[in-house]
Amino acid sequence: MFKKGDIIIYGIILAIILVSSIGVYYYRFNKDNIQKVAIIKQDDVVIEKIFIDDLDELKEIKLFENNDVIIHAENGRIRFYKSNCPDQVCVNSGWISKKGEMAVCLPYRIIIKIEGVDSEVDIITH
Predict the structure, then answer these.
(1) What is the DSSP track for 27-89?
(2) Other beta carbons within 10 Å of 96
(3) Which overall architecture, per CATH, does domain 34-118 show?
């Protein structure tokens, strides 16, 4: 049988688990202070950073002299719109919108990755 001390210890452990679960839920699912930033890189060099949650209208990014690659970004999402690569995998991958998602155009060595940034941060450095 349980003694009075056992019940107190189990109660404390249960309270710690409950408080921890609430903290993890709040941290993970409270997106008020997290903004999504789309980072466009070629050969590990950042071409552009776009805060996609702040966009009010379609933004078109044209890369290279002949507009060989065109990227569209709008509120909360981004995609390869056009590419002159032969297989069109990047264009067919469609919109990406979640933190951690990536789209890649291998022939042009371009990567679009969505990262989350704390909106309270004053500056971002790499």
Answers:
(1) HHH--TTEEEEEEEEETTEEEEEEEGGG-SS-EEEEETTTT-EEEEEETTEEEEEEE--SS-H
(2) 20
(3) Sandwich (2.60)
Can you give the pTM of this predicted structure?
0.66
At 111-120, the pLDDT tens digits run: 999 988 655 5
Give the least confident one: 34-43, 58-67, 94-103, 110-119. Answer: 110-119
AA identity, residue 119: S
Q: Report phi then psi at 61, rounded to 5.
A: -110, 120
Contact 116, 38 (CB under 8 A): no
> Cα torsion for 14, 17, 22, 26, to the nearest 10°?
170
List the chain domain ranges: 1-30, 34-118
